Amino acid sequence: MPDIQHHAQIIKGRAVVADDWRVLRLLDAETPESVEVPTGKVIVPLTVWRAQRESLLGRAGANGEIGVWFASDELATSAKDDLDRFALIAIDFPKFSDGRGYSIAFNLRKRLGYTGELRAIGDVLRDQLFQMQRCGFDAYATRQDRNIHDALKGLTVFSETYQGSVDQALPLFRRQQRDVPLEHSDVGAGI
């Protein structure tokens, strides 16, 4: 029997909401080809999707019962042909200090045009949420040993950003009108 993880609540957008999805994780003795995917809304590892794609196709897409999760060492392009089939894609953060998931999220949103729910799972803490949001995440399954309402505050720790990213395409100097004399042709003048 595979390891099924479920969070009672997640952060979605900027609110704490009930979660109706479960995350399937393989146990040591299981293989992507042989693991049994339970009924209901399940987020399966990308390796399971690839191995059982034909049998899972009917549950993805219109039914919206299958989502996938990327391990931190997988590329966003690994599922580029199937992205429109998933209402939800999750990215696993195996430990707080592993930042590869940020790149996967950015690439899914900006380069591959994924518009569905993008969820952070695993070792997700309050300190990460603001930067995760900047990279394109819109849902967060925080660590269950932490207060989710406290973690929610992590989305608002900064009132302004300087750089452009997924959540704000224009950098600050392009968003702010400055009183700069006309003789200046430097786009950064007045900052």
UniProtKB/TrEMBL annotation:
InterPro entries: UCP030820 (IPR008318). Pfam families: DUF934 (PF06073). This is DUF934 domain-containing protein. It comes from Massilia aerilata.
